[in-house]
Amino acid sequence: MKIAPSIGDLLADGCDSISQQGCCRNDAKEKCGLFGIFGHPGAVEKCYFGLHALQHRGQESAGIAISDGQTLFCRTGMGLVGDVFPSKVLRPLSGMGQTAIGHVRYSTSGSSRLENAQPILAEYSQGQIAVAHNGNLINALLLRDEYEGHGHIFQGTNDSEIIIHLLAKPTHIAKPDPMAHVLGHLQGAFSLLFLLPDRIVAARDAHGIRPLCIGQMAKGSYIVASETCALDINDAEFIREVAPGEIVTIDKNGLHSRFFDGPNTTVPAHCIFEQIYFADPSSTIFGQNVHQVRCEMGRQLAREAPVDADIVTPVPNCARCAAGGYAEQSGVSYARGFTVSHYAGRSFIEPEQPTRDLAVKMKLNVIKEVVRGKRLIVIEDSIVRGTTTRGKMGALKRAGAKEIHLRVASPPIRFPCFYGIDFPSREELIANKRTVEEIRDYLEIDSLQYLSLDGMLSCVKNPPDHYCSACFSGKYPIPVDEAVSKYAFERYQKRLFE
Question: What does the pLDDT look like over 378-397, one tens digit per residue?
Fold first, then answer.
């Protein structure tokens, strides 16, 4: 098996044409976004628009793999979708095929490096295959150790590449259903898209931790995406979610379904943090519109944590929905206390703390005339590390706010996530071993209250035990033996990252 070179590699080497052996990289991390489209003459453009709609899920790298029916091509690069696919690059890719999958990356496993960008395109005994992954595999290091012990060579330092090595194993190829057999080996969170010359295969882990949905365009082309907002931008109709434990194949004969686990044999564990922070408010995931869930969380927060104040103001952007719900329930006027630059990224998913701090300064500016002399109820969607929140509260104080009462539309995050959110270390979490009052003192504000765990779960329609809330409760739906750093695969390159 070999990982194919990218189109970008070839272009960087001065090639005037694209090799049919494989793909292309250029140059721009994972809670990730997935998009796939089958059977559309404008597949590449549709994939580009879909990834643009999913840009909030990953801003470190982007990639598109294309099939012309016989051969796969791929381009990946570092940066935003528009950086990796400017018009001069997108235009020559447009006529290369009617089927494509794409990926935007935010790294929860492996560094923000070009070799970790996806889709990953490879060739093995069964031909070409490209894979795009959202989630985190908790047994990937164990599997990689095993395969490296048998002489396998890995190109990247992420958990996704192991999937291709599993598919290429001769004893797995010999199984009646190799894909289902391989997926049964994976532990953790995964929504996956596979591109083969004649089809797209989509799959979701048995707990359904990460979202994945199916849509259809007017002329019959199918789309698979992490969120419905990527269907909307392409005028596609939402059909349904990929079910937990399901494998969906899309080919010239339509859509076909089978299960590698289940159906309905494993209790779902949908990531509640998708509803709190990651997903776009316009999206419907886990059967509910994200905006409506966040508004209800704000209303529930107002019931649990009222305070006498002059205005309710959100910390943009994710807390706007919850702030609207809080203001509606409390009767306190809603006001815009911050302006936000649309040209700055999301601070939480920046890779390093100094970069996150700078991103906040570049992104948010206080409207002094709104907050000066006012008692503020400031709504935040969550507090992870606390450093950027402290900076925001300090900015409000400097602008003349009389009182600051911070209300958080989720419980305290006290435990690491091993399923695809980048706060793996307890030491990074401000709520770890700190009381609410200690956090309030650190933030230098007048009061602080969080939404309760039960209150949060009352805002979603599925049964409470159908959600993963391990980052709040410490109850992991998939047991994790020990904490593993996102850089675990870089053990032989450690000195490069110190």
Answer: 999 999 999 989 999 999 99
Rounded to 10 deg, the angle between the 387-398 and 436-443 helix axes is 50
Are 309 and 164 in a shared domain? Answer: no
Residues 290 and 256 in one domain: no
Structure tokens at 103: 């990926």
DSSP state of 265: -
Separation of CA 126 from chain center: 30
How far apart are the C-alpha atoms of 351 and 346, rounded to whole Å? 11
Number of domains in the chain: 2
In the chain, the largest separation of any two C-alpha atoms, in whole Å, equals 72
Tokens of 86: 């400017």
Phi then psi for residue 362, to 5 deg, are -75, -25
| 495: phi then psi, degrees, rounded to nearest 5 | -65, -20
> d(Cα 380, Cα 332) in Å, to the nearest integer?
16
User: Does residue 494 lie within any of the structural domains?
Assistant: no
Look up residue 274 and give its DSSP letter: I
Locate 457 and state its tokens.
């779960």
Q: In this structure, are residues 188 and 208 in contact, taking their beta carbons and an 8 Å threshold? A: no
Q: From edge to edge, which strands make up the β-sheet containing 2-3?
A: 2-3, 120-124, 127-137, 188-196, 199-204, 246-251, 254-259
Cβ neighbours, 10 Å, residue 92: 13
Q: Whose structure tokens read 């008692």?
A: 375
Is 393 part of a structural domain of the chain? Answer: yes
Among 234, 269, 304, the domain-final residue is: 269
Examine residue 274 and state whether it is found in any structural domain, yes or no: no
SS3 340: strand
Same domain (yes/no): 306, 240: no
Unique residue bearing structure tokens 């044999």: 265
pLDDT along the chain (498 residues), means of 10: 44 30 30 95 97 95 97 96 96 95 76 83 97 94 90 85 96 97 96 98 98 94 98 98 98 97 93 96 98 98 98 94 98 96 56 59 88 98 93 96 98 93 81 96 98 98 97 94 56 46
- Which of 219, 236, 269 is the last residue in one of the domains? 269
Range of the domain at 215: 2-269
My answer on whether 297 and 263 are in the same domain is: no
Q: Is 32 known to be catalytic?
A: yes
Q: Which residue has the tokens 């329609």?
A: 461
Of the listed 23, 24, 32, 271, which one is catalytic? 32
Q: How far is it, in rounded angstroms, from Cα 347 to Cα 208? A: 27
What pLDDT score does 35 carry?
A: 98
Q: What is the pLDDT of residue 358?
A: 65
329 and 249 co-located in one domain = no
Mark whether 205 and 304 lie in a shared domain: no
List alpha helices for 184-289, DSSP H. 229-232, 272-273
- 47 and 160, same domain (yes or no): yes
Q: Residue 173: in which H helix or E strand, if any?
A: helix 170-173
Q: What is the CATH classification number for the domain harbouring 336? A: 3.40.50.2020
